[in-house]
């Protein structure tokens, strides 16, 4: 099954900058069977664990996050880039493998005792995932774990988000 999914992921060299090998998931998203399988594999390790909300970062985290949330009968909370959320928000700036960025979440999006799963398409250096986990904790909720479609093991993002439990469908 994993090999079937991996076949739908296209490597794009030097995007968005020279030296970056971009993992393009659009072929996987276009195939209904591959998309359904990816979502189920991302959700399955967290079934029965009391997930109240799924958090996903703009923009590919929205794609998988909402689908995983639906699969787990949970709600979804978007984490957005600055200036996109209309209400009071909290923000965090973090490092990417090719620069830095800022993410924001509504201050009233979650709280204790919410149990949260953080979902994204890719775990690379761990900056985005750690920022999302930090925002969740800042608002008083519990991070149960993180689920990603693809993990680039050589970039050691899992160590950056530790001790958060990370599940990845495809590891390269």
Structure description:
A hairpin with a 7-residue loop joins strand 1 and strand 2. Helix 3 (32-43) packs across helix 4 (60-71). The strands form 3 sheets. A 5-stranded parallel beta sheet has the order 4-3-7-8-9, sandwiched between helices. Strands 1-2 form a two-stranded antiparallel sheet. A two-stranded antiparallel ribbon has the order 5-6. The chain has helices at 2-6, 26-30, 32-43, 60-71, 127-138, 157-161, and strands at 10-13, 21-24, 53-57, 75-79, 89-96, 99-106, 115-123, 142-151, 166-171. 30% of the residues lie in helices and 34% in strands. With 172 residues, it is of the alpha/beta class. It contains 6 helices and 9 strands, in the order αββααβαββββαβαβ.
Task: Please name the defining characteristics of this protein.
single chain, 172 residues, 5-stranded parallel beta sheet, two-stranded antiparallel ribbon, 6 helices, 9 strands
Q: What spatial form do the alpha-carbon principal axes imply?
A: globular
Mean pLDDT: 95
> Could you list the spans in which at least 5 consecutive residues all have pLDDT below 50?
none
Strand content: 25-35%
Distance between the termini: 15 Å
Total beta-strand segments: 9
Helix-strand pattern: HEEHHEHEEEEHEHE
Given helix and strand content, the structural type is alpha/beta
Secondary structure tally, helices? 6
Helicity level = 25-40%
The biggest sheet amounts to: 5 strands, parallel
Strands across the major sheet, in which order? 4-3-7-8-9
The radius of gyration is 15 Å
């Amino acid at each position: 099954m994993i090999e079937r999914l991996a076949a739908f992921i296209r490597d794009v060299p030097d995007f968005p900058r020279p030296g970056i090998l971009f993992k393009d998931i659009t072929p996987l998203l276009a195939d209904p069977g591959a998309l359904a399988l990816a979502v189920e594999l991302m959700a399955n390790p967290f079934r029965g664990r009391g997930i109240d909300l799924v958090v996903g970062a703009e923009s590919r985290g929205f794609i998988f996050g909402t689908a995983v949330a639906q699969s787990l009968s949970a709600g979804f909370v978007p984490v957005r880039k600055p200036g996109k959320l209309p209400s009071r928000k909290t923000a965090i700036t973090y490092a990417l493998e090719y620069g830095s960025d800022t993410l924001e979440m509504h201050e009233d999006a979650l709280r204790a005792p919410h149990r949260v799963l953080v979902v994204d398409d890719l775990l690379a250096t761990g900056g985005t995932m750690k920022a999302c986990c930090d925002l969740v904790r800042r608002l008083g909720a519990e991070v149960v774990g993180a689920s990603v479609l693809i993990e680039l093991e050589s970039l050691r993002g899992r160590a950056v988000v530790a001790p958060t439990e990370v599940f990845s469908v495809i590891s390269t």
